[in-house]
Inverse folding.
C-alpha cells in the first residue's frame, strides 16, 4: 500500500511566529506551548487552527511469543482488557471521557472470538494472533500488509467523519518484547537497552525476557528495514498502528504519540516516510527503559514525564489538554495591539 506524505509547507512559519510573539506576554514565556502552537498551525496551514473531534485508536492483538513467558501476565489478559475497554472501565476510557475524546477499539488479531460488538472494530488479520518470532516470523509479508491496510482504513474512516487529531494506543500481552526487537533493529539501539519490565517483571523475569529476545534476534536473517522487521517481530496491533499513522499523516492530521509500543510502530512508519514525524506530538516519556532512547533517536521532546508505563493511549489522552490549550492561546489570546498593552521597551538601559 502506498502513501503520499509530504511535510507541511514552511511558508507560514514566519507569520505564525509573529502572531505568537505578538501575544500579551514576553516572547517565549509560554515555553513549549509556543512551539506546539506553531506546529499545529503549520500542520493545518492556517493562523487560526481548529482541532476537531479528537479520537484515540486503540489496537489490540495477541503475540505467539507471549506463551513463552516474556510477560508477567498470561495471554488471556489481552481479550479480558478488550472487554474492559468495551465496558468503559479501563484507564483509557476514564481519561478519554474526562477530556472529551472519542475512543475507537480495534481487534487486530486477538486470540478470542468477541462476536459482533457495537463498540469494537473487527479488523482481525488472524483469529489466533501472530506466530512466535522465537521460532520464525511472527507474520507473513501479506499479513503485515493487511494489518497496515486495516489500520489505514480505520483512520481514513475516522477522518471522513470530521476528525483532524488522533491519538494512538495499544493492548497486547507481550508487545513490549516486540517493541524492543523492532527498536533494536530499526534504531540500532543495543537490545539490552531496549528491554524493560513491561507489565511488571522482576529482575529475574527481565533477564529471562532478554535471553529469549537475544535468541530471537540471532535467528533473524532479514534486512533491518521496516516492513521486514515489522513482519518478523511485530504484532498485528503494531502493524495496524503503523498503517494508521501513515494514513493520518497523509491526511495532514495531528498525531498524538503514546509510549514505548506506539513509538515502535512510529519507528517503522517514519523510517518508511520521514515526513510523518512533522505531524507527531509526543505525549509523554514512558518509564519503560527503551522509550527515552526511541525519543532520542527520533529527536523528539515529549510534553509530559509522569512515570507512566500503562500504554492503552493513556499518555495521549493526558496530553490532549495541553494540545488544546496551545491552539486556544493562538486563537484567543489578545495581542499587544488589540489589548492596548505597551510592548517591551527595546531601549538599552
Amino acid at each position: 500500500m502506498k502513501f503520499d506524505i509530504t511535510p507541511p509547507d514552511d511558508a507560514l512559519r514566519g507569520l505564525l511566529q509573529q502572531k505568537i510573539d505578538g501575544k500579551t506576554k514576553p516572547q517565549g514565556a509560554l515555553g513549549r506551548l509556543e512551539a506546539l502552537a506553531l506546529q499545529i498551525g503549520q500542520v493545518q496551514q492556517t493562523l487560526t487552527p481548529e482541532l476537531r473531534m479528537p479520537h484515540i485508536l486503540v489496537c489490540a492483538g495477541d503475540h505467539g511469543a507471549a506463551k513463552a513467558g516474556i510477560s508477567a501476565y498470561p495471554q488471556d489478559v489481552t481479550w479480558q482488557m478488550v472487554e474492559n475497554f468495551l465496558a468503559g472501565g479501563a484507564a483509557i476510557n476514564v481519561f478519554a471521557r474526562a477530556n472529551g475524546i472519542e475512543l475507537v477499539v480495534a481487534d487486530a488479531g486477538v486470540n478470542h472470538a468477541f462476536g459482533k460488538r457495537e463498540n469494537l472494530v473487527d479488523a482481525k488479520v488472524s483469529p489466533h494472533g501472530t506466530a512466535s518470532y522465537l521460532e520464525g516470523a511472527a507474520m507473513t509479508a501479506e499479513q503485515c500488509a493487511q494489518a497496515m491496510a486495516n489500520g489505514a482504513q480505520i483512520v481514513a474512516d475516522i477522518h471522513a467523519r470530521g476528525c483532524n487529531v488522533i491519538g494512538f494506543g495499544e493492548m497486547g500481552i507481550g508487545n513490549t518484547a516486540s517493541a524492543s526487537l523492532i527498536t533494536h533493529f530499526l534504531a540500532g539501539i543495543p537490545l539490552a537497552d531496549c528491554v524493560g519490565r513491561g507489565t511488571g517483571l522482576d529482575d529475574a523475569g527481565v533477564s529471562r525476557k532478554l535471553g529469549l529476545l537475544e535468541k530471537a534476534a540471532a535467528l533473524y536473517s532479514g534486512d533491518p528495514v521496516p516492513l521486514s522487521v515489522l513482519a518478523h517481530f511485530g504484532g498485528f496491533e503494531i502493524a495496524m498502528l503503523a498503517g494508521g499513522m501513515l494514513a493520518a499523516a497523509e491526511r495532514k492530521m495531528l498525531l498524538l504519540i503514546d509510549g514505548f509500543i506506539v513509538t515502535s510502530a512510529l519507528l517503522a512508519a517514519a523510517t518508511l516516510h520521514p515526513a510523518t514525524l512533522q505531524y507527531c506530538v509526543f505525549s509523554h516519556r514512558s518509564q519503560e527503559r527503551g522509550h527515552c532512547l526511541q525519543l532520542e533517536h527520533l529527536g523528539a521532546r515529549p510534553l509530559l514525564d509522569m512515570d507512566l508505563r500503562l500504554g492503552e493511549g493513556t499518555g495521549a489522552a493526558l496530553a490532549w489538554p495541553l494540545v488544546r490549550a496551545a491552539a486556544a492561546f493562538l486563537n484567543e489570546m489578545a495581542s499587544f495591539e488589540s489589548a492596548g498593552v505597551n510592548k517591551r521597551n527595546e531601549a538599552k538601559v
In short: The domain at 55-321 is CATH 3.40.50.10210 (Rossmann fold). The radius of gyration is 21 Å. Strands lie at 55-61, 102-109, 120-122, 165-171, 254-257, 280-282. The mean pLDDT is 95.
